[in-house]
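ok so heres the complex, two chains, lmk if somethin looks off
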Amino acid sequence: MNTHPTSSAVTEGLAVRGARRPVWVVLGERALEVVIYLCGISAIIFVLSIFFFVFKEAVPILRDPHFHLSQFLFSDQWYPTSEVNKRYGVLAMIAGTVSVTTLAILIAVPFGLGAAIYLSEFCGGRVKETLKVIIELLAAIPSVVWGFIGLTVMSRLIVKYTGAAVGVNVLNGGIILALMCLPIIVSIGEDALKAVPDSYREAGVALGATRWQLIRHVLLPAAKTGLLAAVLLGVGRGVGETMAVLMATGHAVQIPHSLLDPVRTLTANIAAELGEAPANSAHYQVLFLIGVLLFVMTFVVNLTADLIVRGIRSK
Amino acid sequence: MFTETPHVRRKQRQEAAAQWIFCGMTASMIVPLMLIVGYLIVKAWPSLNLGFLIDVPVRGMTAGGIWPALVGTIYLVVLSLAVAAPVGVLAAVYLNEYARDNWFNRIINLAVINLAGVPSIVHALFGLGAFVYAARFGLSIISASLTLAIMTLPVIIASTREALASVPRSFREACWNVGATRWQTVKSVVLPNSISGILTGIILQVSRAAGETAPIMFTGAVFYKAVQKGDLFPYGLRDQCMALSMHLFTLSTQVPNVKESVQFATAVVLVGSVLFVNATAIVVRGYLRSRKKW
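and the predicted structre for the whole thing:
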């Protein structure tokens, strides 16, 4: 924070010496500062309006007597376009999101944290800078390209090596999502390790600990909350990812029983069906309700991660 | 004389093993990436030429080039950053130069962080509800760019704040002490000293805006739009447009019998331009950091 010393002595002193500026300059500056203030609070306005507009479109379905929130959350029957008996249960898609994200995290966390440890403890100088640039570039690859890789490269590999009937499934989506979550886990994880004071390392080395012992018994315990935040941010990214899972997980609304079952996630479901749902139909409103659900889920995950990171910084 | 005991040797082995394991983990993240990018390029090679960039898609999009999508992406990126960059930079100026450290400021910070975490498909729903229907922009380039702008805003705020925070406090104090107001200080001391960092942050968002698909899919991007070959201004602001990311999605999932090399070439152009823009920004950033005198 850089606050200006608006002591009256300073300003009055200037005025006395005849340094008074033209009225329009002063007023212009005031106006500009109002604009700056409005931009400053724009983030709050946008978060609230995202919630408002998405929720507004979903409200009519909540008022519908045929719609039950418990059925929405706990039924796996998703037949939004059925003529006789429309059913809107998203349990299968929640299962899809959870299974793909869990697999992605299980793959990404060991590798991501391993890479973070390597970056922060084992390499230095030029190698470290190069690796960090590569990771930054890895993070920049658009999700639709990841989806394309899943659809073309990964699915062929999966069919070839597992003998699955279709290559787009939980495994494919999980691997693709893991590659997408890795950069964020590595960079936040490295920050967390960097935040461990050097005196801890020096104390460890002075006791004759090897680097592995140092990592295992000193650094990991000391940085564990920061590493947890890194994992949570990875989860947030995984839950919210749309295009890659839309293209890589197949299109079956079902609760998966194995890694090779195709699934559909919450995000992919919106992306796949929003174009076909007529505006303001019940189907359209339910898709917005799924949007509200996603908004709340990622909000909670990101908020938790942020509180953890903030907790570390203030220490 | 110091001789190695078995204990010491075990420790050394442990040390070497740990180093190799962590190095391997890092490599296993980067090597597949290199292989994938190489594979994409090899597959795309038959179609990768200048003609591909400036031709229009032909024969039901199964062959030809990507010109309309390329121009559409440029439209969307330029417009969305034209909105997001000024708002984002001014927001960061407010947060870093004006705001006091109180609960309200903390709420703004939380909002920025959560805005950055909103899933892209939820941004699409918001864009559809707010810009397409409520603001009556319809399915158009305006709606799509505004949706993208809100998506890139939090990251621009964060990177600009970082750039502003790197200007030493003593610079500001010197300026205040000669009687400058806050805005004069920001305008003539803080911004000139952080402009390079601010610009790199914005350039990094060019690639993000270019790569996003979900937010524009339902707010203004279309599968196909007839455009003259090489036409630089084929779209009006209220028109729908094609976009590179959307085009890749369409080619790989919606259109049957597309020539494989056309799909891969579209992917390579998208990845290539994104990585090129980012690499440039990173190099410039590194150069400017090395020249910094404080």
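quick notes: Residues 88-314 of chain A form a domain with the MetI-like fold fold (CATH 1.10.3720.10). thats all i got rn
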